[in-house]
Sequence to fold (711 residues):
Amino acid sequence: MMTNLIKNTFLILLSLILFISCNEKKKEETVKIINDKAIADENQTSDWLAYGRTHNERRFSPLEDVSVSNVANLKVDWFIDLPNDVGLVSTPLVVNGVLYFTGTMNVIRAVDATSGKLIWTFDPKVREAIKGKRQVGWAHSRGISFYEGKIFTATWDGRLIGIDAKTGKEIWTAVTFDPNRSLNITGAPKAFKGKVLIGNGGSENGPARGVVTCYDAETGKELWKFFVVPGNPVDGFENEAMEMAAKTWNGEWWKNGGGGNAWHGFTYDADLDVLYFGTGNGGPWNPRIRSPKVDDNLFLCSIVAVKPDTGEYLWHYQTTPGEAWDYNSTMDIVLADLKIKGEDVKAILHAPKNGFFYVINRETGKLISAEPFTEVTWASHIDLKTGRPVLVDGARYDKGPIDIAPDSWGGHSWHAMAYSPQSGLVYIPTLHKADKYSDEGVVYEGWESKEFSGGIGVGLSPADKQLSDHPSSLEAIDPITQEHVWSIPQDDFWNAGILTTGGNLVLQGRSDGKLLAYNAKTGKIVWTFDTGLGISAPPITYKVNGRQYISLLVGFGGGYARGGLDAYNLGWSYRTHTRRLITFSLEGTVDLPALPPRHFPKPIVDTNFKIDKDKATKGMNEYWKCFICHGDNMFSGGMAPDLRASPIALNKEALIAVVRNGAKNTMGMPSFPDMTDEQLENLMHFIRKRAKETLPDYEESIKNNAVKKQN
Ligand code: CA
Fold:
């Protein structure tokens, strides 16, 4: 009897323990573990787990609640103002109902994905880190990554940081390059297999040697490195791949770095367990300075495939051998499974700057097809047998100045392209510009690339004739046939990246501030929304509590936003328009408060200031330190104040305080402690000269804007 009682009690207790532990397990299962299996899952629709949504980087979501038939009813569901941000180009992530995004200067915020309510902010204090040192560039980041409870961000000054996704607290920091080097990071780190990969940019700013480095996601410990170009053979090669690459170089290439910087385009193939990365242009651009007897210069402008665990070389495909035009192949590497001529092909889809759209077999690295997706004049075609471009005579400006398309912005830059397995089409934000390349006046003898002053070794000027009557377009291409199924010409340059969905939609924001939805199959515009500010970031979509959301960051930015008359003419002047994160749904009811109209800073013409021509000419040379933020030809694109309209530039004491003594360091303005009184005075004269001579441009801008409004 007694024994039975004990036995029964024991059994009851045992089942109780089993019941509790079972329930614990269930609870655990409801909180998803974000590992490779989760990130590779194309069918999962609640989250947006990686830069291109999944490991395949397609930016296709099967969500179909919002579709061509009801997208006209899309409204703002929630939004948040981001008054301290400037250029916003990044892709947010959504994990378990939380939306994470990186803003200007790598500030990361976690917000409730259904309301925008702030959960935490992480500020890596980039402004402080760059103080006085990094006199180049702008503070953009294209994204963050998520893996097993951690967020990874790479800062402009070269730190890779692992953050606890729950608390927003830093777990580890790895310094990915010497902060005294003129390198920078704008790319999203790639998280996969318990690792994080990052490269860097900066081949125009100094003697850069491209490299990608892989870190342990748990600890931040460096696991492996893969250099893009070989170093000095005397120092020995890091691996066989570098030894092979060195055979395609000559002269003393290592003295100027060689370039090849991998600043974007990192893709992990969970299917084949291979890592691909795209590589950048040569350093300098002029191939005869880089390596006098022009050769392929591996692995510039290539896709390189490596083993993800060790970084061991597998294969490469070079899109632009002996590159001479800044034709990065760092653009998106999208994975698609295609049926070509009856055969299943595991393909890479790639549209680099050089203007050809490539379909590559990713099991072998062999080219399947390559056709121009924009105007291309540097090569007649890609020879499918050899996989190599056939260059036109004199394309490398070796027989005098030559007009070349695409120009150095490329036929496609980092603005995300997308692939829909539903429509079978790839969508490319396409650019159409030509430029004149010339090495006239370039001194080859003793040419030297120095930290923070770099140089490209080639002169650029406007082409005699543009080959397209529109500067950009949205192209929908069938990757099997290379046919352009539809094409939408666009009036402004530098439109943003693409989202495509199971609702037969393609969504794209434009630099004129409009977000558009197209029928993915036909290109018919089915919805337009004016955000009131230029868009440079791609939209994402996700579903929480049964509601599909479409979300995007709004804030004109990126390299083109550094200025020039066309960028100035968009009217997104510095700190005039509040940056925003805007989220839409069919159930949304919010009316977005209007932003100020386009604003064109008016050049100040100071009649009391006597412009000295010689001083102004000398000041033009000083302006090379300023143009990358304050704008080409002193037309600001909104990333920094327009100096022609700046009261600070009218007063020498104020100019000294800001430029030499760093009074606006915390705003992102670096200090230039070595600048002499004379140099600053010369700069002042140049600013006044530009203000005076560009007043008619300003008046023209105002007139054109009035006409635009009437239409
Ligand atoms: Ca470049």
Notes: The first strand starts at residue 60 and ends at 61. The two ends are 96 Å apart (CA to CA).
